[in-house]
Amino acid sequence: MEAVTVFVDDAVLGELPPVCVITGARTNDRLTFTQDVGGRTGLGVAWLLVLAGPLGWIGLLVIASMRPGGESLTVTLPYSEDAHLHMKRARRVRTLATLVMLGAAVTALLSLQRGSTDARLLALGLAVVAVGGLIRVVIESVHVNKATVRLSLDASRRWLTLSGVHGNFVAAVQRDEHSSPSLPRR
Predict the structure, then answer these.
(1) β-strand pairing of 2-7 with 30-38
(2) Are 166 and 149 in contact (CB under 8 A)?
(3) Where are the domains of the chain?
(4) Under a CB-based contact definition with an 8 Å cutoff, are residues 6 and 160 in contact?
(5) What is the predicted pLDDT for the residue at 5?
(6) Burial class of residue 176 in the structure, from the number of CB atoms within 10 Å of its CB (0-12 exposed, 13-18 middle, 19+ buried)
(7) pLDDT tens, 94-129?
(8) Nearest to 77 by CA among 36, 5, 28
(9) Which end of the chain is more exposed for a tag (fewer CB within 10 A), N or C?
(10) Angle at 137 between CA 143 and CA 31, to 5 degrees
């Protein structure tokens, strides 16, 4: 996957070459999505509140909810139907795997409270299922990441860098730039 810089107005208005940003195939399909592009950093050391137990968890939720929203950008990119279906499937499988992992982990912990040998064996089996779910979550997160374009604005807010795009899309954008002399050059 590669990166390319385009004029931000072209991305917002959907005036990019008709080449899928993910597969590199020619397409007339477009996908509009919104992504945070800056102004919002992580919670930093506030994550240490997780170690403080339930009171720390509540404090972390309060801190996270009080933070101002970041800057977001809505763009329309050429996205083939196959790429979109692949992304939706990966997100759905990741969500299902997360639910299975959490359900198995909670049930394993609850079964350990019984204290019998059968309950311990059940907890062990459920722990294996939870680890399998975690592995599937990681795999599907990689698939979602590969099917998603990352956006970043430059300091002037005029140029947008699209990361994680196919090389054919990059070539189409560069061909488009050279054939349109009226566009500003970077």
Answers:
(1) unpaired
(2) no
(3) 2-36+71-179
(4) yes
(5) 92
(6) middle
(7) 999 999 999 999 999 999 888 888 989 999 999 999
(8) 28
(9) C
(10) 40
